[in-house]
Amino acid sequence: MALSLSTTTTVAIVSVILLLILPTSYCSEFIPDSDRDVIEFALNLEYLETEFFLSGALGRGLDSIAPSLAAGGPRPIGGRQAKLDPFLKDVMLQLGLQEVGHLRAIKSVVKGFPRPLLNISAGVFAEALNTVFGRRLVPPFNPYDNGLNFLIASYAIPYVGLTGYVGANPNLQSATAKRLVAGLLGVEAGQDAVIRTLLYSRVQEKVYPYGITVAEFTDRISKLRDRLARDGLKDEGLIVPQADGAEGKISGNVLSADQNSLSYARTPEEILRIVYGTGDERVPGGFYPRGADGRIAKSYLRIHGA
Ligand SMILES: *[C@@H]1O[C@H](CO)[C@@H](O)[C@H](O)[C@H]1NC(C)=O
């Protein structure tokens, strides 16, 4: 008994010494399960962004750039090269390649999972936009038809990731996870700002052939996201009532933020309700026909018996 106790003590002391002398890069691999779950959840959104931006810019996706990061996951459904002018193609390719880096960074910290099945076909966006406007748009909205449509579709994507990272941040324990999430958040916020600024420069333009302004598209998409997420006001279009603008003094709204111009935060549940397009974290659909992966997302799928 005494022997085993002293053995335990010795092991403990040796472990502490080892922890102290090991390089920080090694120590940084010890991250709590709760941090791992949060970071793995983000992987779902990063895969979606990677495939959507790369497809729009190049007509091909992650498999053509860094196939090992897909880890054998199925090919996305329905991605196409968008008809973009050289400027927009260049911007979208930059965003897509940034997402490849995000995948690598996440997978260097957590094991992760293979790319989930993604549906980025025009029809998924068309159905979402029909819901947004409460009627069938004719012709169906197609993100790949032209640059403005692709920007409007892009409006729907990094912002969701951004609110997720803001929501995740206070729950993180380890320095490694905090460093990673801050780095991801910075670039997601930047991507959202680029997309919103490009749209804001055309905010009163009518989207052909619908005769609906860019302002109205963004307002309606934001309202739909709030409705699906059931989260109150966490999403604002490019033109808002003056009371919702910065300091309650302006209706131009190039960034979506709260009364103190701080980014809104969303929970994983709220995000799943949006990206599934079902308003229910237990019912997959939309961009994720089989649901998202990782412990958090799968815990809801299991409850549902899917
Ligand atoms: C992908 O989305 C389109 C449009 O909603 C739909 O018709 C198709 O069935 C979806 N594919 C899968 C595998 O869910």
Automatic annotation (TrEMBL):
The keyword Signal applies. Keywords: Signal. It comes from the Eukaryota. Residues 1-27 form the signal peptide. Pfam families: Ferritin_2. PANTHER family: DESICCATION-LIKE PROTEIN (PTHR31694:SF12). This is Desiccation-related protein PCC13-62. The lineage of its organism: Eukaryota, Viridiplantae, Streptophyta, Embryophyta, Tracheophyta.
